[in-house]
Amino acid sequence: MSNDTEPAQVSSVAAESHAGACDAEMQLLEGAVRSLPYHVVKELLSVGVCARCVLRLFGIEEHIYCHSSFSQSMLGSILEEETSFKSEVEFQFCSVCLGVLQFSYCDDGEETVVKKESAKDMALSIAELVKQEGHQIDGFSLEVSVPPLILENESSLLSHMKKKYESEPWFQERLLSKCHSVKDVLKFAITKPLETLLGVKASASSFRIRLTYTHKRASKKVQNSVERNQECKRRKTGTENALHNVNDESVIADKDCSGYSTIETNSVTGIFSNGVQDQETSEHFESPIEKVSEPCHLVYVCCRTHIYLCGRYLKYSRNVSQTRWIIDEERMGEASVEEIIGSNILPICQGDNYKFHAAGREDIDVRMLGSGRPFLLEIQNARQVPSELIVKEMESKINGLENKSVGVKNLKVVGSQGWALMHEGEAEKQKQYCALVWISRPLEDEDMQTISLLNDMKILQRTPIRVLHRRSPLEREKIIHWMKIERIAGSSQYFLLHLCTQAGTYIKEFVHGDLGRTQPSVGSILGCRAEILQLDVTDVKMDCFVTE
Amino acid sequence: MSDDMVDRTRKLEETTVSNSLHEEEEEEEERPVREKAEYEEEELHKLLVPDVSQLPPTPPSAVETNFVSYFAPDFMKPGNDQYVYRHANGLCVVGLASTHLAFKDKGGITAVDFNVGKSDRSSMKVTGKRKRNAQHFESNTALCKVCTGDDSYVVRCCVKGSLLEVNDRLIKQPELLNSSADREGYIAIIMPKPADWLKVKTSLLSLEEFKILRELC
């Protein structure tokens, strides 16, 4: 674009290329530009600062220059015109924001430089990604992270301006007011067009759109301040990776900014109040900040934070384990509760992955009946959050499977508080069981009396032999709250033992005694040998995940 | 209809009249909560009661179900018959087989002493999942001494491995050996390394082979 256009022609060019922008907005912009000290703006432009950075450094409100259809070229030419500045090159990446506010970046996949003309165009590619991924959303939250180099540039530039122009009259009014951060300006610029393209509002949403800018080059300033900050940060965050890489320039700059948040916030909010930082950056800034030849690398992703489905599961089979159980590449049992539930829910939510969590567990050969066991299914990056109706369909589907080994009750979507609900008081909760027991002599009425009189009986269990290989050898005291014998018609030595015990009690070992390592045991109480043939969990006494 | 059923029907009618805005289907979901709970109890109970005709008169014992039994006849000394029960997780329970010489003595076993060799086996404390402080013993290392009225016999590991536990109940109740040497009278639990187990396994007899040897069938 040629540089010796007259002011009158600038307006018409602007009007041509941005039919959407109405006159009122253009006037606001021109008015704001005219209020700036020309010589300062000219100097900024000459050291390669882009138009939006110039405007934001002076604290001009974003809505004035962040209209979604205002283009680079338009903004640039307005500023140049007002200040009679002639730039030597056609386009140059901003020496402060490294192209971020010029909507220019290096594409992640193809490594090509992309230059979007306006915020609208930028928003378009992001919206494309969201549509491609197939997300069903009712809102979005936009997150941006920029490399520390940008803030370093900004703080040294501001520091230089302070030194040079402190005494001038405009300085008191202008620079002391907040200069808007690159992140805020970028977010402001693309949020509205994104809202329009996606048809939803920006809000605190579980659906996140994340823009991560990184830059290959790390300035010496970054290195020094990183080293200095590492000493006090070592105790705070323990970011050991950063410590090891202090001397590796390229790695520091490429890292995501999470470890450097301290530097960022200081620069943006309190640059002049933070004396130390002021000193150190002005020491290093002797000449204008360096111009850059390449923009930042941008990676933009969108994903949904985990959604949770909770409920209670029942297990009717004695050959289905709770979770996937594979030894030496061979599956134990014919299926797992985890996979049956997860594989039927994941595709409906169109998620990437699922994780199954339950409040306790039962052996593969133990059925889970009655009220069911509380569980939580975590779905990662769901493209669709199921509605109440769809959740009911999921429940019916699982309960209607041909292989009726698993059932689900009270299935519903729950927030992250589901975790706390499920684990609340897990260790104190009581469990109720029904065991099929055989004894070595006929059952007497006296036995039924003896058993039913035992309430809150303490037992001592040494770690059962069957788990001793992977658990600590300990002696654990457990409580058997109550027991009841139910005779079985047609048998004198078999009976059903109903019992309610403290969480963590090994029932099988309580029946057969585990070679005398559980005392007392059913056998020792009845004075004979006792064996357990079958065990069922009939109630997990927890309040969570029940119908209201 | 019986009185009970008349009452139930009347209750049903009452609730459906009062819930006139709701669907008046007479399905389980519409019964009062109490009845629904009873119904669920019944259904649950049906699942719990076994089919008696399918139950064996004498079921296999916990040991038979969970362990594979091996035998070491005349281990280190004639008459010293010991068993090794191996669990699927690799742990081995060792003890005296019923044919051990000690049981032939009048009065049976009267005392058990774990203080043999260099240390008192009953005093060691194994801790943690990794079983720290467990002593590593050879198959011929002495575990304990078993005394009868006439004689005393040394019981050895039979399996090379880490000693996880000794049955210290035998100290106060040596009679456990007389009544149930194959269960509550076990001597110790040992954890062999997989390679060590494979080696010793070749020298042990299966239950069948042992029965034949000792003519126990």
UniProtKB/TrEMBL annotation, chain A:
GO biological process, one term: tRNA pseudouridine synthesis
Molecular function terms, GO-annotated: pseudouridine synthase activity; RNA binding; tRNA pseudouridine(55) synthase activity
Broad class of enzyme this protein falls into: isomerase
Positions of the Pus10-like C-terminal domain: 308-540
EC number per UniProt: 5.4.99.25
SUPFAM superfamilies (UniProt xref): Pseudouridine synthase
Ranges where the Pus10 N-terminal eukaryotes domain occurs: 94-232
Alphabetical list of Pfam families matching this protein: Pus10_C, Pus10_N_euk
InterPro entries the UniProt entry points to: PsdUridine_synth_cat_dom_sf (IPR020103), Pus10-like (IPR039894), Pus10-like_C (IPR048741), Pus10_N_euk (IPR048742)
Protein name as catalogued: tRNA pseudouridine(55) synthase
Organism from which the protein derives: Theobroma cacao
Lineage: Eukaryota, Viridiplantae, Streptophyta, Embryophyta, Tracheophyta
TrEMBL record, chain B:
Compositional bias (Basic and acidic residues): 1-14
Superkingdom to which the source organism belongs: Eukaryota
GO cellular component, one term: nucleus
InterPro entries in UniProt: Abitram (IPR039169), Single_hybrid_motif (IPR011053)
Cross-referenced Gene3D superfamilies: 2.40.50.100
Annotated region (Disordered), positions in chain: 1-39
Name of the protein in its database record: Single hybrid motif superfamily protein isoform 1
